[in-house]
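subagent[fold] <- orchestrator: predict structure for attached chain, return tokens only, no commentary.
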Amino acid sequence: MLAAAGSSDLAEAVKRYLDDVGMEIELDMADQGRFQTAAWREGWDGLCLFSSGSDPDPLMVILVMFGPHPMNLVAGFYRSPELLSEGEEALQQFDLAGKKLYAKKLVRQIADEVALVPLYEMSMGYIIKPYVHTTYGREMSVARRTYNEWMDPH
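subagent[fold] -> orchestrator:
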């Protein structure tokens, strides 16, 4: 499993979990240059351990990362014809019900293909009070403009 140097504790934990279920893997702890080149440009064989941001709009994250016109190209991520077709249909959803339906369809497609296996999510808390001005919940959290956030005196 390809993993970035500096994430050895996480990589060792994942390896142990996989070993426990009978999937023996070798760790390939790559320096940042080799890891980033593999993740974003050249791809990799087998497993790759990397982190990704989340978003208040799950459909947006799926489409930005794994949809038919991704904004960040994870080089080794396989996009099946079915996933691409579902993604094109998802892009035509403008109401909440349609977005929810297609978020579920895309998550199911990705899971059925075992193209991506989420391991954990780190919860974060935001103080949302009238005196807090934030873009959280209104724009993608992996590319938020935090310079537009501030607190009034309180």
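orchestrator: received. Logging for downstream: The mean pLDDT is 83. The chain has five helices and four strands.
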